[in-house]
Amino acid sequence: MKRLFKWILGIVSTLIVLILALGIVAVIFFNSDELKNQLVKKVKTETSADLVIEQELSLSFFPWLHIETGGITLSQPQSFKSDKHLMKVDQVAASIKLMPLFSGDIEVGAVELSGAELNLLRDNQGRSNIEALVNAKESTPSTKTSDTKEASESSNSKQGSLSLESLVLTDFTLNQYDYSEKLSQSFHLNKLEVNDFAPGSSTPISATGTLQADGAKTEWGLSGDLWVGADFKKFKVSQLEAELEGLSEQLKEIALSGDLELSMAEKTTQLSHHGVVRLNGQPINIQLNAGFSSFKDIDVKLSAKRLELEGLMAATASEEKPKQTKPLDLSPIADFLKRARVKGQLEVDELVLKNATFNKVSANLRNKGTTLFLDPFKADAFQGHMETIASINFVAKPLALSIQPDFNNIQIGDLLAAFFELDKLSGLGELDLNMKTKGAGVKEMLQNLSGTGNLQLTDGAFNGIDIEKLIQSGLSLESLNKQNYSGKTSFANLSSNIKANKGLIELPDFKLNSPVFDLVGKASTNANQETLAGNFQLSLKGKLKELVEQKYPKLQGKKLPFELRGTWAEPKASIDIEALLKAEYQDKIDKKKEELEDKAKDKLKDKLGDIFNRKK
């Protein structure tokens, strides 16, 4: 045993002496320029990109193999035309223990990288510069393929362990440009630090930075426990906490927590996340499974007990002068959906939009290109039920929304009060729409609304307009005042088709039946100006009809003209009975005038004849 120990000690001593000798020889014969030239040639051969190393390579060998340099830039691959460099690094330093290398283990000391910048671009065909770099490497002729394969298999069979004492990334920037090389977003890492890393064990990580997109700058941060498999193909982050603040005026905070797993294979990468995403502090449970290859296959399930959307949307129609906010840049979502296949489910117990509450919300999610579909979207709302097929096109500016809602047995007054803060109409019935619109807020959506629909209501009322009072005022020729509009007009049935074109909403065949009159005509509202207009014919019934016909017998069986004008907040109606009477007798008046004129002419001729005869 003692002899064995001496033998091992002798071998170790011999190795130390050899390492010292190699270190001395390397230091003496080390040529920085030659090594840089070899690196430049190797990179050019492998990637077709130009590597430039401005600073000298600083190299030391014992007790660590330590290298340090800076001023590194890498150009775009030769097939990718752009003046912007692909990557630059201000300073890099790394060290590796020499002794463990003889046993096949790699023990890395400190790795520090600062002032790095990576620029991602796409050409007109949609190909990225990273893809061009990889393709250039894959197309490079390779010799001794069998030898390389055997060497790879041999190295895999004898692969040792890897450990890392510390990794520090400082001032790292990732820039993404659009097709015209305009900066679309910039991801900046202030500092990332990892200590005591080894495959197969968990290591705490933390990082902070900023994200700049469309002129808006936001802050982000993350923390968690990182686990990496021995083959470096599986990654897990447990107890993940990530947060993004100040994304827009509406979306002030996005936070993500839970457990994340990443598994890489030769042609695909699998990602899964189970946890919670918070939008402005509101929790939504998320189960995500995704596969990334030539296409991104996304399977997601979202669920929440309560979700309020008002704070996430733009100003509503009731605001006269909404605060001007810069719209959220959704082009990254559109770019993602172009090469994605999405499917999923959404379930929310209680969804609140302004003053409207939707219960038992469910929707199936899918996409077709940059358009995301909710097909179907179901919910209980406004004391009834609604079901719709809805779609959102993220490439349109502003967002393009298409809806085909079917409302059954809803209180229309609840709907109007919830979205427009109007309490002018109530009634139970059905509303079917096939509409398209654009915008992030209710007001903008109304102003861009186009399509068709149908409205059917029963047992309702117009609040603020008492048509019976208006008729009585007309009978007594009273001047109209606010009291005429303080009551309400009840009806048994109301129906009309609906036509909308860029915010102008028309009801071309409006019909209303009440206990005292029937109303038929055309009505319209302009969402851009929030105004009302309508021209109708009134057919009176019962006692009201008797009153009118007693005062104006000639109006028996006639329809009264009824006009509606004003704004959403203050609608005004009028009935001009005197005008109707004048129209009724206008023909008789005109005939009487002609008769009188003819008689006057005849008398004038006779008088002129008499005068002429006398002079003669």
Largest sheet: 28 strands, mixed
What percent of the residues sit in helical stretches (DSSP H or I)?
10-25%
* Distance from first to last alpha carbon: 173 Å
Number of strands: 28
Give me the secondary-structure category.
alpha+beta
In terms of DSSP E residues, the strand content is: over 45%
- As a whole number of angstroms, the C-alpha radius of gyration is 40 Å
The shape is: elongated
Tally of helical segments: 10
Q: Which oligomeric state applies? A: single chain
- Low-pLDDT parts are 1-29, 142-158, 314-325
Rounded average pLDDT: 77
Concise structural overview:
Keywords: Coiled coil, Membrane, Transmembrane, Transmembrane helix. The protein is α+β, with helices and mostly antiparallel strands. Among the domains are: 1-131 and 162-183; 419-575, no CATH class; 587-615.
Task: Describe the model.
- The protein is α+β, with helices and mostly antiparallel strands.
- Among the domains are: 153 residues; 157 residues, no CATH class; 29 residues.
- Helices cover 24% and strands 49% of the residues.
- The protein has a 28-stranded mixed beta sheet that branches.
- The N terminus is likely disordered.
- This is AsmA family protein.
- InterPro entries: AsmA, AsmA-related.
Layout: helices, strands, pairs:
Blueprint: H1 2-29, H2 32-47, E1 51-53, E2 58-60, E3 64-74, E4 87-97, E5 106-120, H3 129-138, H4 145-157, E6 162-177, E7 183-197, E8 202-213, E9 216-228, E10 234-245, E11 253-264, E12 269-279, E13 282-292, E14 296-308, H5 331-338, E15 340-353, E16 356-368, E17 371-381, E18 384-393, E19 400-403, E20 406-411, H6 412-420, E21 425-438, H7 442-447, E22 450-463, H8 467-476, E23 488-501, E24 504-513, E25 517-526, E26 531-540, H9 542-551, E27 560-567, E28 571-575, H10 577-615
Parallel strand pairs: 5-6, 14-15
Antiparallel strand pairs: 1-3, 2-3, 3-4, 4-5, 6-7, 7-8, 8-9, 9-10, 10-11, 11-12, 12-13, 13-14, 15-16, 16-17, 17-18, 18-19, 18-20, 19-21, 20-21, 21-22, 22-23, 23-24, 24-25, 25-26, 26-27, 27-28
Helix pairs in contact: 8-9
